[in-house]
UniProtKB/TrEMBL annotation:
Protein name as catalogued: HD domain-containing protein
InterPro entries given in the database record: HD/PDEase_dom, HD_domain
Domain of life: Bacteria
TM helices/strands, residue ranges: none
Biological source species: Companilactobacillus zhachilii
Pfam families (alphabetical): HD
Record Gene3D superfamilies: 1.20.58.1910, HD-domain/PDEase-like (1.10.472.50)
Residue span(s) of domain HD/PDEase: 22-138
């Protein structure tokens, strides 16, 4: 199989797995991550096939989204083998999909990602900020019955992985302080950092406007 045929097969597999999610992980998220990864790949000497394969598959076995991630990882492994990926390539792709999450980055020993992995992580994080990020946070908050905003709940400035994953009184606006506004400083590649800075400012402007309207100051 050519690289192009392999990626077409992975795209179809990802589409089948991701097209009925209602928490902001629909296939449109995947397509934006792919586009952004392609944009970053123009500036970085990473393996494009590994990068794009991992980008297509990065949320398929997410333990937030599926009850049995291990079975899905095995399914992905078998699928990649069937379309001629080597054991080494499969391990690299699954290492990326397994380790790119924000909560993993908060652990005491954050995983080290290859350049391909860093690009997928940057592309995924760019989709969590800016206008798209604002929309996804509201969409996710609605799907999970979160409160919009509570001025009495203060953002928790630093959290470890377990604390982040066990938040029980999250508000949509708090999520900006506890995750989204931290992502720009965490970008790996200069290209992503530059894109992130503009999107970051857009979120700061949004939050200023939101609070001014909340207090009827505007
Ligand atoms: P990703 O696919 O970008 O790794 P997540 O799985 O963490 O993202 O979440 C999907 C989307 O929902 C992201 O845009 C994220 O910022 C948003 N989101 C996650 N948790 C919350 C939350 N508690 N409140 C509001 N939005 C959230
Ligand atoms: Ni994602």
């Amino acid at each position: 199989m050519t690289h192009k045929e392999q990626l077409a097969a992975i795209k179809a597999f990802s589409f089948k797995k991701m097209s009925n999610d209602a928490t902001g992980h629909n296939f449109d998220h995947i397509q934006r991550v792919i586009k952004t990864a392609q944009r970053i790949l123009k500036d970085e000497p990473a393996d494009a096939t590994i990068t794009l394969a991992a980008a297509y598959l990065h949320d398929v076995a997410d333990d937030k989204l599926v009850s049995d991630p291990a079975t899905l990882e095995q399914e992905i492994r078998d699928f990649l083998q069937n379309i001629d990926f080597t054991e080494e390539q499969i391990n690299e792709i699954l290492y990326i999909t397994h380790n790119l999450s924000f909560s993993k980055s908060l652990s005491a020993n954050p995983p080290k990602l290859s350049l391909a992995g860093q690009i997928v992580q940057d592309a995924d994080r760019l989709d969590a900020i800016g206008a798209i990020g604002i929309t996804r946070a509201i969409y996710y908050g609605g799907a999970n019955s979160e409160t919009i905003y509570d001025p009495n709940i203060q953002p928790r400035k630093s959290m470890n992985k377990a604390e982040y994953r066990n938040l029980d009184n999250e508000t949509i606006i708090n999520h900006f302080y506890e995750k989204l506004l931290k992502l720009t400083a965490m970008m790996n590649t200069p290209t992503a950092k530059k894109i992130a800075e503009q999107r970051h400012q857009y979120m700061l402007d949004f939050l200023d406007e939101f609070k001014a309207e909340w207090d009827a100051k505007k």
